[in-house]
Amino acid sequence: MATCLSLTYLPQFPNSVSHSFPFSSSSIRCLSSTKIHTVRNPKARTFHSLIRHRSSLRNTHHRKSFTLRSAVDDVSVIDPPPPPPPSSPPNPELVASLKLKLFSAVSGLNRGLAASEDDVRKAEAAAKEVEEVGGRVDLSTDLDQLQGRWKLIYSSAFSGKTLGGSRPGPPTGRLLPITLGQVFQRIDIVSKDFDNIVELELGTPWPLPQIEVTATLAHKFELIGLATIKISFEKTTVKTTGNLSQLPPLELPRLPDGLRPPSDTRSGEFEVTYIDSDTRITRGDRGELRVFVIS
Question: What ranges does the record give for the region Disordered, renumbered to this chain (predicted)?
Fold first, then answer.
């Protein structure tokens, strides 16, 4: 009678194969008294076929993993946009170039008195470029920038051919023998004095020489907000210069409150739209563009 051996006599497969296929031995050997014969399982796989199958499964898994990784690698990932850079100071070379362009646009215009409509447009465009590059003006943290004596080199209001600009003022030309000289603003941030100083030449009958005078319109100023200046008129003083400089200054009488016009044209507001150590651009409350340089 044949006696079958226990599973101890099964061929020893690698652990990985045994765990996956515990009953897939290539054969089961039985021992009889005369011979050992083998009973083959038709569904069983040989050891080498198991190894090949296992290798095939591993390669298939590797190909799938490679394909998956490749698909992931091909996916485009859009990074979030970087945060905006902190505000940086304007490029000095660019500012200098644009200022030169502005000075060229207003030169030869006699502070605006000789400006045509095309000249006014060119000056306006050049001033806007400087303002945009310079950024927002904040005088609340650095009022010292206003300090000093500033020379007017252009006023868009003078193109209206009146010395008052966009406000009422004496006309230029042949109606009155008045020639406009230099115009200055003298600002003292300690005393809050804000003086408009105008040099004039008054025509006289021949053979008398022209009379040269300097009119000083004294104001007090205050800062409103970041860059808006409000000025309040106080008095006008006229001082002769040249051959008559020895004469004392004359303070013009101030009109009584009841005789003043509804709107005091000698007071108002304007905004400083650009300022540095030698140049200042302002916009008046009536749209007047003014360009100053330190003197």
Answer: 72-93
How sure is the predictor about 68, in pLDDT bands with cuts at 50, 70 and 90?
A: very low
Question: Which domains are delineated in the chain?
Answer: 3-66 (no CATH), 97-253+265-294 (2.40.128.280)
On the question of pLDDT at 52 being above 80, the answer is no
DSSP letter string, the chain: --EE--GGGS----HHHHHH-TT--S-EEEE-SS-EEEE--TT---HHHHHHHHHHHHHHHHHHHHHHHHHHHTS---PPPPPPPPP-PPPHHHHHHHHHHHHHHHTTSGGGTT--HHHHHHHHHHHHHHHHHH----TTS-GGGG-EEEEEEEEGGGGGSBTTTTS--PBPSSSS-EEEEEEEEEEETTTTEEEEEEEEEE--STTSPPEEEEEEEEEEEEEETTTEEEEEEEEEEEEEEGGGTTSPPEEEPPPPGGGS-SS-TT-EEEEEEEE-SSEEEEEETTS-EEEEEE-
Q: Does the CA dihedral 59-62-66-72 come out positive or negative? A: positive
Q: For the segment 230-288, what is each residue's pLDDT rounded down to a tens digit?
A: 999 999 999 999 888 888 999 987 766 555 555 555 678 999 999 999 999 999 977 89
Q: In angstroms, how far is CA 94 from the centroid of its own chain?
A: 14
For residue 204, what pLDDT is reported? 81
Sheet holding 28-31, edge to edge: 3-4, 28-31, 36-39
